[in-house]
Amino acid sequence: MNLRAVSIIPFIVMLFFSTACASPSEADSHPSPASEGLVITVETSEKAVTPTSVVQKEPSASLAPVFSVTTVAGENIRLEDLLGSVPIYLLFIPSSTDELDISQMRDVQVKINEFENLGAEVVVIVSDLPNQVIDMRDEFGLDFSLIADPLNVVANDWRVFDLDNNGQPNPASFIFNAHGSLIARLVAAEPSDRPSVDEVLSIIEESLSTGAA
Fold first, then answer.
1. Contact partners, residue 42, CB within 8 Å, separation at least 6
2. How many structural domains compose the chain?
3. Global confidence as pTM
4. What tens digit of pLDDT does each residue of 37-57 get?
5. DSSP 8-state secondary structure symbol assigned to residue 129
6. CA–CA separation, 34 vs 163, rounded Å?
7. Dihedrals φ, ψ of 153, to 5°?
8. For residue 27, how far is the Cα from the chain centroid?
9. Contact predicate 203/56, CB 8 Å
10. Domain containing residue 110
11. pLDDT digits 0-9 by tens, 116-131
12. What's the CA gap between 188 and 197, in Å, rounded?
C-alpha cells in the first residue's frame, strides 16, 4: 500500500473520533464502532478510497481519542502530552505471536534510529496480555513503547476493533505531525495491508521539511 501516492489525490475527509479513550466503566456511554465510526468521503476520478485504505489529509487539529496508559516497561504514556509536541507513529497490531505482526515490529526496530533522528515517537498497541508482549519485546529486542491491550479498550475507542465481526482488531497505522494533526492513516482490510516503515518515515520527514509539522 503506497501511502505517498494518496497524498496527491484531491479529496474531502471527515473524521469523527471520540475525545477520550473509553475506560471499562465508561464503555456503555459511548457509541459502538458499528453505530458511529470514521466516515470518509473521497472525490477523485480514480477508484474511490474506502475506509480501510490509506488516507492522507491536510493538517488540522487532531480529534483523536486520547489515552493515559502504562507500557509493559512501566512507563506512563499520556497521548495528549505527546500530541502537538512530536511526530507520532501509532500502530495497532492484533497479537504478539503472529508472523506478520512480528515482522512489522522487526521492521520498525531496524529503523528506530531514523524515527529518533526525526524526533518521532513510536507507540504500539498490542491486543495481547502484558507477559506475552514482554516476551515479544525481549525476544526481538524492541526498543519503543509497547502497550498491552488484552481487552481491546484502546483498540475499540480508536475504532479498529471487530471491524470484520471476528472479535479481533485490524492492523492499523496512524501518523500525526508535531502539531498533533492526523496526516495519514491505514486500517488494514487484509492482514498484510500495512504501510512499509520507509513510507511512514517519508511522510513524517516530508511533513517536517515542508513545515506542516
1. 9, 11, 12, 13, 48, 49, 55
2. 1
3. 0.72
4. 332 222 222 323 333 444 444
5. -
6. 8
7. -65, -50
8. 21
9. yes
10. 3-209
11. 999 999 999 999 999 9
12. 15
